[in-house]
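Before the break, one more example. Copy the sequence into your notebook; we will annotate it together after we see the structure.
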Amino acid sequence: AALCFGAIASFAQEVQEMPPVVAGITTAKEYKHEVARRYVGRIVAEETVAVVAQVAGEIKEVCFKEGDIVEKGAVLYKLDDVKYSAAVKAAEASVAQAQANFDYAKKTFDRTTVLFERKVASANDMDSAVSAFNSAQAALEAAKANLILAEDNLAHATITSPIKGKIGANSFTDGNYISLSSGVLTTVVKVDPVRVKFSLSSRDLMTMFGSVANLKEKANVSIVLADGTKYLKEGTILFADNTVNVQTDSIGIYAQFDNAEGVLNVGSAVTVNVASKESEMYVGVPSTAIIYKNAGTQLYIVKDGVAELRDVVLGPSIDGVQYIKEGVTENDIVVHKGTHKVYPGAKVNGVEE
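Here is what the structure looks like once it is written out:
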């Protein structure tokens, strides 16, 4: 026993007499960590309208420049409206004639009613007056309906934009005769704001937010463009699809982004970053400070110039920084270079980095 004690004492003396170990050290710092995920998304339009003809006619004038932003109600095409103007005038004349017939039938009905009550007019006279009055009233309503249709046709001879947006290519130039079967004349796409659609896995939805309602309330969403630049304006989660894709177990999410400058082009692919607004605080050290062993993970803390081996519980690792859940506190001095030379109880000549 005395021999064993002497050997231990001799080893301890050797350790104390060994020169300090030169190693890279740094100070553990506190970091704010946001839980974030990255997805592939695509820019889609909130509104897209295919402009088609509602009446037939020759195009007299195309009133827009392809690729421009057009206002809602802006005139796009003017058709030859001569026959539609004439139809309106004819319908107005029919209404006037029907109104006159109705007025006469009503007066006749009123007079006949008085005479019938005095027993001067017969029942047959009364039936005739009622029939004439009802017929005149029906004819007047039919004439008014025809006038509405004629006015509607005349209005559609001037084709306007139903929304504000960016107009596409023109399919028919001046002089072409178009009809209801001519197909799409042009398209108008709403480009401000735009939507970005991406698929969020059910697992990420549940682990990060718990529900779609929490996603809308607690998520920060941003996008990175095709050239790698981050779009400066953040988006807002609008809604989620009403079903989950059974093949990918993911749900479609729609986010809205302002696009006043027209940077975002409908149909383009973007990278979508989704992060939780609720961040967590971690103590972080360089990833090179971590020592991996079968028993777990450790690192060296330097106190008063002496190395102390600590067991640690790891958190996420971001850009070379290892977050620590347990085992290290802020401002601890940590060995992150030359850990293979350090041992418990060793004196450390630290090089601050």
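The mean pLDDT is 90. Helices lie at 2-17, 82-117, 123-156, 202-209, 212-218. Try to locate both features in your own notes.
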